Amino acid sequence: MKKNIFLDLRINIGLVLTIIGLLITITGIVSSPTKEALDGLNIDLIWGIVTTVVGLFFLGLYLKNPNMDE
Amino acid sequence: MDQAIFHPKFIDYLIIGVYFIFVILVGVALKGKMKTGNDFFLSGRSIPGWITSLAFLSANLGALEMLGMVASGYQYGIMTVHYYLIGAIPAMVFLGIFMMPFYYGSKVRSVPEYLKKRYNEATRGFNAISFAVMTVLMSGISLYAMALILKVLLGWSMTLSIVLAAVIVLIYVGIGGLTSSIYNEVIQFFLIWIGLLPITILSLRDVGGWNGLLDRLPENFSHIWEGTATAAGNGMSVDFLGIVLGLGFVLSFGYWTTDFLVVQRAMAAKDMAAAQNTSIIASFPKMLMPILTVVPGMAAILLLPQLGPDSLHGNYDMALPLLMAKYYPTGLLGLGITALLASFMSGMAGNVTAFTTIWTYDIYQAYINKKASDKHYLFMGRISTVVGIIISIGTAYIVMGFPNMMDYMQTLFGFFNAPLFAVFLLGMFWKKASPWGGFWGLLSGTLTAGILYLFLPEDFYASAAAGNFWRAWWAFFAAIVIEIIVSLFTKQKKESELVGLVYGLTEKISHKHLPWYRKPTVLGSIAMIVFIALNIWLF
């Protein structure tokens, strides 16, 4: 049976967070937008990386055990 | 529009777009798996425990609840954590250890179906119809509230928000059924944590950390029990008895153990241990949720001192979005908005899936078309998804015309589950509770709640929270008393009919073969120990 990877939640969570995380990281690097309340802190860069790492963690969980046998 | 609070740029919309595409992909991917009614309504009872747990928790994590809890943290301080501790944890552990064996073990497909097996058709009918009406109205109210908030935040027209959200929910629930709803709830859970945690971190950084925050707030904002000897001693105007009996016992047990919206998630689990553990495992992240809600709400007292009860731009409910506007630059803002949108939509999807199941199994199959093929019921599930969403949209527009209706309905539904819990408690643990006892208990408890709501003067209770707690308590009490009296004078069911439905007549489940970390009693005890420790720490 052909397996649809979108049936696996680890893939879904992993991909959503990785893609969004990368978009935020790139925004942080390219334009480093800021807010008065942040005193120059590049929160996009920091949190973009955090989001990407969490996303990659879920993709890693999938790759380690693709068939979900607990 | 200039008036909007957020000013998202292209990249923010791109991030929101990524999320929408995934939501729909998940629904489409699940399409092939939805072959029977059981797949569509119960996920074929095949979902692993960690997934049902997070969905169980997320079904209760609608954006309205999130905004409301931040607002409550702003108004009442740390006492708001009662909603996450005594108002949730004991009930979730009780559901897992004591009640789930009957729900899952009896193979019922819904809460009303249990009532039919344990009591009679009339009890089931009353509960099914009132639950279906309530859920679909609630879904409409959330839709309206979402549109209103998006209008203030983003300047979107209300019609655009309502139609967009409704269409997306329709696509993923209509195609992928309960599984799709559950999957999206789990994705939403992680989006909420990732998307909102920076607010907590950044606002704590500005107020001098957790201890700095407590030092700068009034004394009664930093203790959860100390000021509750009298109602006047604390900001919420409730005494400890009201908290324990009203919130901790009746409201919380009523909601967590009988509301089909949450119980349906546990019923989708793959085996008995996973079903029991669903609510118990969910209790751990539940105890962490105040980090995202109560803490920023309290920090907002110092950071946004100008908030009040009125106008939407400076309303308490806007505390969370205003913090987001203060700290989130383009990019992160897209993630923050996505987290809010995700929780709006999965709240609505949860209501729609619960409505669809009750309508198809407990109203359509029970009274309209008893002997159709499974395929027909699957078809009816899809049709009723469409109809449920159309009614929600209609409700949203009605509420738009009469905004006060929202408050009335939310208050009324707030204690709707209290009498139902009474009926379940007697039904599961007292074998002499009779079929008509159950029916009259449920009816009279519900009427009591309604009468107390309509005829007590508005200022009878010191605060809205106190009013909810005590009304729920009396509705519960009335249901218990009436059910016991009627049961003593009407015909009881034979014991042989109650096997698997009542405690004492059901074989005890053995989990001896499981490792300790999958035993419901072990996990439940750990949850209770953490719960008690947190109460002592915050006393």
From TrEMBL, chain A:
Entry's transmembrane regions: 12-33, 45-63
Domain of life: Bacteria
Alphabetically ordered keywords of this record: Membrane, Transmembrane, Transmembrane helix
Record-given protein name: Uncharacterized protein
Organism: Perspicuibacillus lycopersici
Origin organism lineage: Bacteria, Bacillati, Bacillota, Bacilli, Bacillales
From TrEMBL, chain B:
One Gene Ontology molecular-function label: D-glucose:sodium symporter activity
Membrane topology listed for this record: Multi-pass membrane protein
Principal cellular location given in the protein's record: membrane
Keywords recorded for this protein, A-Z: Membrane, Transmembrane, Transmembrane helix
Subcellular location: Membrane
Membrane-crossing residue ranges in chain numbering: 13-30, 50-71, 83-104, 125-147, 153-174, 186-204, 240-262, 287-307, 327-356, 377-400, 412-430, 437-456, 468-489, 521-538
Pfam families: SSF
CDD domains in UniProt: SLC5sbd_u2 (cd11478)
InterPro entries: Na/Glc_symporter_sf, Na/solute_symporter
NCBIfam families given in the database record: sss
Protein family per UniProt: Belongs to the sodium:solute symporter (SSF) (TC 2.A.21) family.
Name under which the protein is recorded: Sodium:solute symporter family protein
Lineage: Bacteria, Bacillati, Bacillota, Bacilli, Bacillales
